Amino acid sequence: MDVTRGPDPAETIGHRLRRLRLERGLSQRELAGPGVSYAYISRIEAGARQPSVKALRTLSPKLAVSVEYLETGSDLNDDEEREVRVANAELQLRLDDHSEGAERTLRDVLDEAVAVGDQVSASRAQVVLGLAAAGAGRDADAVALLEQATASELVTPATSVNVYATLARSYAALGSPERAVALLEDCLAQISDRTPDQVAARVRYSTYLGNALTDVGETERAEALLQNLLEDGSTLTDPHMRVRLYWATGRVAAHQGNTTAALDYLRRAVAMLEASEDTVQLARAHLMCAWIFVSSERPHEAAPHLELAEKLLGPHPEPLDLAYLRTEQARAAVQLDDPERAVEAAKEALATLGDSDPHEQGNAWFALAQGLALDSSRGDAHDAFRQASALLEEHGRPQEAAAALRAWARLLRNEKREAEALDVLDRVAELSASNRSGARPAPR
Fold first, then answer.
1. Angle formed by the axes of helices 177-194 and 199-215, to 10°?
2. Residues 67 and 81 in one domain
3. Contact 397, 389 (CB under 8 A)
4. How far apart, in Å, are the Cα atoms of 14 and each of 22, 50, 60?
5. On the chain, which terminus has fewer CB atoms closer than 10 Å, C or N?
6. 83 and 150 both lie in a single domain
7. How confident is the model at residue 435 (pLDDT cuts 50, 70, 90)?
């Protein structure tokens, strides 16, 4: 059944009157009343007469429906009916049930709402469509829709934290992490100035901003922001707030190379998530732990976290979660000298990412290149190294691009292509001299 459908446009007043009368077991004579004879009812049902307002008011109580329903097939006015269609479509998307039909309904509602100036329904439809697009990895669509929604006074940082957080993630996935930082800084400033009593919103924006600052290499700012929250006792009373803070603080520590502190914070977050039913966040926490171990070249310790993350994400994970998982599996496989698994996982990560998250594309290309270097029969490692270094130079950090270039130079030297290897190493020297800093972002 399509729950997003409105009143049946093919059902006339006469058809509706007859249906309701029969459903209630009434004859035309029994339904008749003062000023509304059974003959009059017969002509209405046959489509020969349109009922007067007086007739509708006489008949509707006997049929136990409103006058509006008897006349239109709906108890709702147009604005309310659009709101119901949006709510039903949103439920379908959450259940992943007929999602194409739900999105079609939302776009129809959006067009109708814009045409008649119904800003409430238009904003709601834009939000639901934008969140769905982000969840499906269509970040450009998500940005277009969510920017329209947040331009409305109805969608504010105080009332719609998830909307702004998703918009920031989509900016980052499109290769613009600085826009994510700017957006989250503005949201946090608005919360602090206008609604300082909203502690939960302040914590959420602070942790999102901490993650975004870490992504652009500003780990000291991120650390200071999060440490202030950790020292504020009011932010630790709610378990969900504590998980967010432990997560973000662990992530900063990982980027600063403090593996022990990073794992300590992540293990606290994992312990709290295990007591909840949030399996997706628990999966992401295990994926973060795996990233830390792989980055420390401890693939055997990463393995159980990767297995748990895949199990917890379930059969239909969000595209970015799947891509991050496959990239870490590929990196671990390289360290375990398993080129077949490395190549397979890296290719799946790239296919899943599509045009999203050029930074993570660079990481996946690097893992693929290393896998191909282990077994040249599987493809051209040089092309993969070229792709990885280009993406990481533009969207990553000097250390990441330098690591890819050094690995490429080693392969060239192994193949006795010394001049080409020296050219690649010259680029490493240029990167090392740059003023940029930071480490590879962990999976979000």
1. 160
2. no
3. no
4. 12, 8, 13
5. N
6. yes
7. very low
